[in-house]
Amino acid sequence: MGVKLGSLTLRKEIRLRVFKKRVLGRKFGPKRDEVTREWRKRYNEELTDLYFSPDLIQVIKLRKMRLAGYVALMK
Description:
Number of strands: 2
Strand order of the largest sheet: 1-2
Shape: elongated
Structural class: mainly alpha
Largest sheet: 2 strands, antiparallel
Radius of gyration: 18 Å
Order of helices and strands: HEEHH
Number of helices: 3
């Protein structure tokens, strides 16, 4: 049994990015605004600064290209 990769459509890319931001938002939680002293959700830039990781979409595309290269070399 193999793993079916399927195509990475624009819709799937967007859903993956939204999922990543949602998980990071829950992990790091809200932040108290320094001016208004009220709690607010963190902005996407803040989440990216707090947790830097390789772009998930790029990793998936690179792995699919690597797999395609292996398949092309097979006889």
